[in-house]
Amino acid sequence: MEIFDLVVIGGGPGGYLAAERAGHAGLKTVVIEKREFGGVCLNEGCVPSKTFLNSAKVLDYANHAEVYGVKVDGEKTIDQKAVVERKKGVVKMLVSGVKAQLKRNKVKTVSAEAFIEGKNDDGFIIKAGEEKYVGKRLIIATGSMPVVPPIQGLKENVESGYVMTNREILDLEVIPKTLTIIGGGVIGLEMASYFSSVGTKVTVVEMLTKIAGPTEAEISGILQKSLEKKGVEFKLGAKVVAVEKDGVVYEKDGKTEKVVAEKVLLSIGRRAVTQGYGLENINVNLERGAIVTDEQMRTNVANVYAVGDVNGKIMLAHTAYREAEVAVNTILGKKDAMRYNVIPSVIYTNPEVGSVGETEESAKAKGLDVKCVNIPLTYSGRYIAENSDLNGICKIVVNNKTNTLIGAHIIGSYSGEYIVAVSAMIDLEVDIENIKKLVFPHPTVCEIVREAIFQI
Ligand code: NAI
Questions:
Q1: What are 98-129's pLDDT values in tens digits?
Q2: Ligand 1 atom closest to Cα of 208?
Q3: Which of 136, 294, 358, 430 lies 20 to 30 Å (CA to CA) from residue 227?
Q4: Is the dihedral of CA 301, 307, 308, 312 positive or negative?
Q5: What is the pTM assigned to this prediction?
Q6: Which domain holds residue 37?
């Protein structure tokens, strides 16, 4: 049995980045993946959904081309087979990039299902295929899978293919005439944005009274209106109680109703993958179905770390990246720790949403003395020049005591790209007076942050 400094189980963003960083630092590393390197994010999540959404954006532009003085003749339709083909090409390119990066950093890659058999004096014994590997340390990065709750008829209809998850919907080569989406969270909304753009009649059934879960309330409302304008119908405060062969049954205001659809997407959250690979053989602690970790990504078992969705903290690829780095730095004896309060989040709908930190509501609930500014994106010249729907806003939250930014919530073009600038200002606790001295390129949409700061 070959002994490694580090064995990583799972080749998604958490796993491959941990392996890459460890290899780069000179640790003898092996990463084991049972499906495709790149994980859910690269193969059936973040990246492929962005190829879909970009095709929809191009179509949206074509449909409104006249607004911009462009004449596009003939019918503008989506070629879904071509969209799926393009997606496959993008995924292939990125997955081969991940493999090349691992190779460059001298990481051994194994394509097999890993199983933790136990521990001996040399380390943790991991079986993968016919081989066994010993790791002095272990990083678990097995990710998450869609939640399939015990709703009547759901399991059978997932098995028959009538109900899809994020995996199947991104392989759909025929656009359905009607689509019902169970869950108005991030996956549901991104897919609602895509399918409504390409001509599907979309209905979203959401249990809560607002869409986009923790998103700032006014922004969630603007997003809802934008999607409604594209024809999406929302059933809010509606709990799905059964799935039948031709539709979804839900309860709303004490009444039971049904929405008939050609296809259904299930997107009501994801759960950590902790079963079936021998975690119990080394007694790793779980809480509410996820691996318990501290801020150095350590589990209760010495030399065992857990990064990414499997620890159930914030299920986002960029959180996994950072957790991977913290775990590897901890292994290397470098001081590092996770900070979860400045992780930005982006919803890649059209219009897109970028948020980070506190909302006015959450800050006040914490008893913080805050000042808030809410301005329209029409303060930005580039925003007006490039958009026909001018409903974007930018909200910032400032802590009066520290005179620093603690939150920003933006809906409108590019917000997902420049929200990181605000994250940096929050994370580095930059004084508002110093932010005022920063030069923003003009004309850009990100100038909206500077504009908001000057309105405090
Ligand atoms: P989610 O947690 O974002 O949203 C699930 C929604 O389903 C919630 O609003 C919930 O109230 C609702 N729901 C639950 N049970 C229901 C029922 N019986 N009837 C009606 N509604 C019900 O989960 P989602 O969209 O599946 O995403 C999964 C994970 O993937 C999330 O952790 C998310 O952060 C991540 N993701 C992130 C993306 C991004 O950052 N842009 C894109 C896609 C996914």
A1: 999 999 999 999 999 999 999 999 999 999 99
A2: 11
A3: 358
A4: positive
A5: 0.96
A6: 2-145+271-340
